[in-house]
Amino acid sequence: MKKKSWKSIPEGGIITTPGNSLKFKTGDWKTHYPEWNKEKCIQCLRCHFLCPEGAIKVKNGKVVGIDLDYCKGCGICADECPVKAIVMKKVGENGSD
Ligand code: SF4
Ligand code: SF4
Q1: Ligand 2 centre and the CA of 63: distance in Å?
Q2: Distance separating alpha carbons of residues 42 and 40, to the nearest angstrom
Q3: Which pTM value belongs to this model?
Q4: CA separation, residue 55 to residues 4, 7, 9, 10, 77 (Å)
Q5: Ligand 2 center to residue 23 CA distance, Å?
Q6: Does ligand 2 come within 6 angstroms of the Cβ of 45?
Q7: Residue nearest to atom 4 of ligand 2 (CA)
Q8: Mean pLDDT calculated for residue range 23-40
Q9: Handedness of CA 56, 57, 61, 62 (dihedral sign)
Q10: Would you say residue 97 has pLDDT above 60?
């Protein structure tokens, strides 16, 4: 059967499996990743509030790590950290994925 060209496909789309975003590790395509230094961190939570992906993990009101499965490596957290407790590294350095 001949496939339809994009011109004959109706506009719009449907999501056949709603709520499936957790299945897709959207951090896969980052080129840089944040490295968090627990000792330097003063727990101001600035990175948590500014991360556009919600990738800064917080437990009991404190930063406990970074979810690299969903971090996209934008570097906002590193730029905004007042004490440089987060630095950006290139993917592939120090055994990162
Ligand atoms: S690099 Fe960007 S996406 Fe990743 S944790 Fe920092 S602010 Fe969030
Ligand atoms: S912005 Fe920096 S000091 Fe503040 S919670 Fe995040 S890592 Fe810690």
Answers
A1: 7
A2: 6
A3: 0.80
A4: 39, 38, 36, 36, 10
A5: 28
A6: yes
A7: 44
A8: 91
A9: negative
A10: no
The reported pLDDT for the residue numbered 94 is 59
**Type of residue found at 49:** F
CATH class of the domain whose range is 27-95: alpha beta
* CA 23/CA 51 separation, integer angstroms: 20
List, in order, residues 6 or more apart from 11 with CB less than 8 Å away: none
Distance 82 CA to ligand 2 centre (A): 7
Over residues 5-34, the mean pLDDT reads 84
Mean pLDDT of the chain: 90
Is the CB–ligand 2 distance for residue 85 below 6 Å? yes
Identify which of 51, 71, 86, 88 to mutate to test ligand 2's pocket (most ligand atoms within 8 A of the CB).
86
> 43: Cβ below 6 Å to ligand 2?
yes
Q: So what's the pLDDT on residue 20?
A: 81
